[in-house]
């Protein structure tokens, strides 16, 4: 009886097609395994491309500074080293489903300007997006409040009311909300603002959504500025308080003292002499 390879060779010869009689015969089981491996590789590549697309979409909506990463962070003081350690523990905890379902968690970063608070918060967010596809929103509280106040202008023609309602819904639903500049330049928030922010934090608490609050106030000043009702909602979270007190990392724009001494006053229009 002719082998299958011989039959194929004879058929190829009859059709004037090239044949390779020296090719090794591959049985069905081996061939099936090869096809399964190839299919699994293609599925894996498709999953990687899909994840990359999802991660890029989350990054696109987050409004994070792309430079806020741990790789770009200079750990040059004890407070930053401690903050990074706490941040890494917070990220690692997301590996535990029980921790993620146990309730709402909040990181509270406080300290003076230029200490690296926003940078570390952004680094946390970037890593959570990459590792766990956590949805993130970075917003400055003052910008949200301006939008909120503008939404009361019923004569506006830019549909600001609808835009704020959509933005507010997004604040409620996102997995991690980063609120920066909380109560900046504010001794105390207005009562209606305290109620709005307090309700926002309480609803996120109920829905087990996490937050990072960043402020230049001390904790005592922050409690006064936010108001008791609003600050009580902060205390309901499983809170990690991180104080930043090292040197400012922002480059100064002031002139050199020697250069400043050589500057002579210039005449200005309408100057009283």
From TrEMBL:
This is Flavodoxin. Residues 261-273 have a biased composition (Polar residues). Residues 108-227 form the IstB-like ATP-binding domain. Gene3D superfamilies: P-loop containing nucleotide triphosphate hydrolases (3.40.50.300). Residues 251-273 are annotated as: Disordered. InterPro entries: IstB_ATP-bd, P-loop_NTPase. Pfam families: IstB_IS21. GO terms for molecular function: ATP binding. GO terms for biological process: DNA replication.
């Amino acid at each position: 009886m002719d082998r299958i390879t011989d039959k194929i060779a004879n058929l190829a010869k009859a059709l004037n097609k090239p044949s390779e009689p020296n090719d090794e015969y591959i049985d069905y089981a081996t061939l099936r395994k090869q096809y399964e491996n190839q299919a699994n590789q293609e599925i894996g590549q498709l999953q990687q491309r899909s994840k990359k697309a999802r991660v890029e979409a989350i990054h696109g909506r987050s409004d994070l500074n792309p430079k806020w990463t741990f790789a770009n962070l200079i750990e040059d003081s004890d407070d930053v080293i401690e903050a990074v350690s706490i941040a890494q523990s917070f990220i690692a905890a997301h590996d535990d489903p029980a921790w993620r379902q146990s309730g709402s968690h909040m990181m509270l970063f406080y300290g003076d300007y230029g200490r690296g608070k926003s940078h570390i918060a952004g680094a946390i967010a970037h890593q959570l997006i990459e590792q766990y596809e956590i949805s993130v929103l970075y917003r400055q509280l003052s910008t949200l409040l301006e939008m909120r106040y503008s939404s009361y202008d019923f004569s506006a023609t830019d549909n600001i009311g609808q835009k704020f309602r959509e933005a507010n819904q997004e604040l409620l639903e996102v997995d991690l909300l980063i609120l920066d500049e909380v109560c900046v330049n504010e001794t105390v928030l207005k009562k209606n603002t305290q109620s709005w922010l307090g309700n926002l934090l309480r609803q996120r608490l109920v829905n087990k959504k996490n937050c990072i609050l960043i402020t230049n106030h001390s904790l005592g000043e922050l409690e006064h500025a936010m108001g008791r009702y609003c600050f009580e909602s902060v205390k309901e979270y499983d809170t990690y308080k991180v104080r930043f007190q090292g040197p400012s990392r922002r480059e100064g724009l002031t002139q050199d003292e020697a250069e400043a001494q050589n500057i002579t006053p210039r005449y200005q229009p309408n100057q009283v002499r």
